[in-house]
Design goal:
This is B box-type domain-containing protein. By secondary structure, the chain is mainly α. It has a domain at 61-169. It contains 6 helices and 4 strands, in the order ββααααααββ. The protein has helices at residues 28-57, 60-64, 68-123, 128-150, 159-162, 166-169; strands at 17-19, 24-26, 184-188, 191-195. The strands form 2 sheets. A two-stranded antiparallel sheet has the order 1-2. It has a two-stranded antiparallel sheet with strand order 3-4.
């Protein structure tokens, strides 16, 4: 007959069954109780697993609208679009001011040219090279007025905006998550009771 060890639970010298998990010897009665504790812990784990499965099975579209990350992306988009709109409006105003100032300059120059032309005609104080110069001035005014009407006298500089790497301005990446799993073993009434198996 094999020698009995001390039962881990009742402390009697009737421990004939070895639990390979905790290396404790148990009598037949206490081994059943020990196994029941393990079964209970297993059931808790299965319940936790089932809860996780429910979360996994939930459609993600329902939660997308309330997802803080999606909300943050939406807010960034709104702010960025507003900044682009404001910048475009500022550039439009600059373009209008520049075109208006160029137009005013042309009008002033044309007014001076008109006076000179009228004066020369009235006094008849001109020669061939004056007529050639006046003709060149008229040609210049034609070019300037054509360019002004077509808006090609001003150049839009958008090199910086074309260099924007939109894939790097905003992007998502997986954030490392440290999961704290605490396993504490407590002795209660001579038995191992494992708690906090699922504390995250």
């Amino acid at each position: 007959m094999a020698e009995s060890k001390q039962c881990f639970t009742c402390q009697k010298p009737t421990g004939i069954i070895l639990c390979v998990g905790c290396n404790g010897y148990f009598c037949t009665k206490d081994f059943k109780g020990h196994r029941e504790i393990l079964f209970t812990e297993m059931e808790k784990l299965v319940e936790e697993r089932n809860k996780l499965q429910e979360i996994i099975n939930k459609p993600t579209k329902e939660t997308d609208a309330n997802n803080p990350l999606i909300e943050e992306i939406n807010a960034w988009e709104k702010i960025t679009v507003e900044r682009v709109r404001q910048t475009a409006e500022q550039v439009r105003q600059q373009a209008n001011q520049l075109m208006n100032s160029k137009s005013m300059k042309t009008i002033n120059e044309f007014s001076g040219f008109t006076e000179e032309l009228a004066n020369m005609k009235e006094t008849e104080d001109y020669v061939e090279h004056d007529l050639t110069r006046l003709k060149q001035k008229i040609d210049q005014f034609n070019v300037v007025l054509t360019r002004l009407s077509q808006g090609i006298i001003i150049e839009l500089n958008k090199e910086e905006s074309e260099r924007i790497n939109w894939n790097r301005i905003i992007y998502v990446r997986e954030k490392p998550v440290e999961i704290e799993v605490q396993q504490t073993s407590k002795k209660r009434k001579g038995m191992f009771v494992t708690s906090n198996l699922n504390k995250f």
